[in-house]
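## retry 2 of 3
previous attempt timed out at serialization; input unchanged, resubmitting
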Amino acid sequence: MYKDPENILPRLDGLYEGLEYGSSMEVENIRKDRSLIEESIKKRKLDLSVLDRFYDKDKEWRSLVKDLDALRAEKNRISEQINKNRDKRDELIKKASELDSRVRELEEKERRVSEEREKALFSLPNLVHPKWPLDKEEEVFVYGKPKVLKANEEDFIKQFGSRDHIIANNVMSQYDIIREYDLADEERGSELAGPRFYYMKNDLVLLDNALALYALKMLREQGFKMVIPPYLVKRYVEERATSFDAFEETLYKIEGEDLYLIPTAEHPIAAYNADRLLDEDELPLRYGGFSASFRKEAGAHGKDTKGIFRNHHFNKVEQYIVCKKDQVEAELNRVMNNQARLIRDLNIPFRVIKVPAFDMDKKALFQFDIEGWFPAQNRYRELGSHASVGTWQAVRFNIKYYDKNEKEKRYVHTIYSTLVPIERMLSALLENNLQEDGRIVVPKVLADLVGFDEIKPVR
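## retry succeeded, writing output
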């Protein structure tokens, strides 16, 4: 019997209230009413030209389809007359041949414009929830007491007011920890692979694998389907899983082949049910995906470029949900509580925020981030994003289910949700579990798996 997760976050309700349709990919809806998608683009602080381009191409394409249908109907009419009007047979055959030529020309133009129209459609960001915060993040939940250096307390209070915290005398950045405790070798990694690659070493290797195992076991207990996807996928997958025009520069492409290294398990898992009609009774489908992930992104300057916080290659456990519209809120509650519980079990203080509309993923209808506390930075940093994308990916991948009550096919809704960005989570674990005497205490949930309960410096 599968069990439900412990709920430690406030319940998320009413997220779909006021949302008129499932995503910006539902063409019939955005043809009828431009206002909702236009307002969403403005909330994201994007240029409306992206929407104008789609409407222009859609209008041109529909006009071509109309002309093609008329030409084909005319050709069929003349073809029927050829055998009935022998006196005009040669004239009619000539006219039919001319129509054939015009049809072929117009079909080629329609094919080209259809591709341009699809590209314009696929470049549209998703809708934004009508009630979503526009210009700043909203904090919705806080857990734990952050560890703060006395010298940083004034800055902490300026950021978070009188929030409970612990004054610490010994704070180290993850970058310094991995050097002092011999947990990774950045220098050798950079020499042999380039900047932002490293050799993970010693106890951190075991912790990396234990953290993935702990996360996957948590999902298996809830009936998630376990997946290790292909680490290389075709362009088709990336174009439909995300905003490819904005994401392409971060992807590693295999030269001479139609293959890209995946930036997250989410994308190949999103494509798994492409062109399928699902049984309504199967939903929700819950997937737990483990993968290595590869991104070119340079990231922020300063300490983000050092250590294991942000690199070109990292491991991740992802949650992905395929469901009906009325299941979205319950499933989003599930996956967010999964990550909140895991972070709590690692002794990391955290908070949950609503991501402002202008800063959300382009495919998100609404997005929550869970941020862990990093004592050396004296700030919370993102450990996971959790978002409903409505029907945005389902339309692009053509994933539907059969609604038994309405007797019709409907697009599914999907949710993506980070459970563990392993190296980043380990960074937070190391900083928050550092003791005053220099030991790093290994949280019990991992100590039981790795066989040791502390790490000591070697330098």
